[in-house]
UniProtKB/TrEMBL annotation:
ABC transporter domain: residues covered: 12-233
Compositionally skewed regions (Low complexity) per UniProt: 240-252
Compartments, as annotated in UniProt: Cell inner membrane
Location (main, coarse): membrane
Name this polypeptide is given: ATP-binding cassette domain-containing protein
Region of interest (Disordered), ranges: 240-260
UniProt KW Cell membrane keyword: yes
Any one GO molecular function term: ATP binding
Lineage of source species: Bacteria, Pseudomonadati, Pseudomonadota, Gammaproteobacteria, Oceanospirillales
Length: 260
């Protein structure tokens, strides 16, 4: 189905995104000036760009606009290390429960959420770890807990800020497939360019404060994605840095290719 026929979820038209506002409402730190893009229902978007290019800034704005429709998996996980895996995942639905139910469940897990979180943990390869404090897990296990908490929110749409940065390529694919199985629409920041091409419908690429790629993944090449990372000087690879030689200039980047 062409995205023209899909429901429009987000439209930015020449909008300035950044951080902090003065008394007149002007942005104090402009990151993405004049941003224009759309997000349609059913799209799976990979968000690429080197560190500091504005991925988190854009995700924060999407999150603010989508509100309770979006599940959120933050870059630094936002887990409570002293609490068990079960409690951290359960926190995904904390806003839906009364304070009393939430507190009671912290002391003595209720049977239904215990079962639901257990099923989710099994899918995430965390079975048997439900009672373990998150502070005692590996980086990859913590990342899966953070994904579990986002999945447990049960929203229509998934927003993730590098949710597969700490796992191996095989696990990254499995986790993205799990995210897809529960959300029709997703926007995922990541640095794995081959994964962006193989797994996602669409790529948004940020460079120098601008959206320089907004195109279907099927129309893009690895070299075009490599050009988003001008500071890198190693050969491209699935999880490596991009090639310096043969990079297309930013002007040659396919910003509007296939834009809906
Ligand atoms: N709260 C903030 N206040 C002011 N400036 C900020 C704030 N958060 C981020 N920035 C700045 O905005 C710019 C974009 O940062 P952002 O975190 O969006 O980049 P990113 O692409 O997500 O980077 P990374 O891949 O390292 O997470 C950077 O220059 C950063 O210093």
């Amino acid at each position: 189905m062409e995205s023209e026929q899909r429901r429009l979820l987000i439209r930015f038209e020449g909008e300035d995104l950044g951080h902090g506002r003065d008394r007149q409402g002007r942005l104090q730190h402009l990151v993405l000036p004049g941003l224009t893009l759309t997000l349609h229902e059913g799209e799976r978007v990979a968000l690429l760009g080197q560190s500091g290019s504005g991925k988190s800034t854009l995700l924060a704005e999407l999150r603010a606009r989508l509100g309770r429709h979006a599940a959120w998996c933050p870059q630094h996980h936002g887990l409570v290390p002293q609490l068990a895996v079960y409690h951290n995942v359960f926190m995904g639905r904390l806003p839906e429960h009364s304070t009393l139910a939430g507190l009671w469940n912290l002391v003595r897990p209720l049977s239904r959420p215990w079962r639901e979180v257990g099923e989710l943990c099994a899918l995430l390869g965390l079975e048997g770890l439900e009672r373990r404090p998150v502070g005692q897990l590996s980086g990859g296990q913590r990342q899966r807990v953070a994904i579990g908490r986002a999945l447990y929110q049960g929203r229509d749409l998934f927003l993730g800020d590098e949710p597969v940065a700490s796992v191996d390529p095989h696990q990254a694919l499995r986790l993205l497939a799990l995210i897809d199985s529960r959300h029709a629409t997703s926007v995922v920041a990541l640095h794995q360019r081959e994964l962006a091409l193989s797994h996602f419908d669409r790529v948004w690429g940020l460079r120098d404060g601008h959206l320089v790629i907004d195109a279907p993944a099927a129309t893009l090449t690895l070299a075009e994605l490599d050009a988003l990372y001008p500071d890198a000087d190693e050969p491209a690879g699935a999880f490596g840095a991009p090639a310096a030689a043969g990079m297309p200039s930013p002007e040659a980047l396919p910003c509007a290719r296939g834009r809906p």
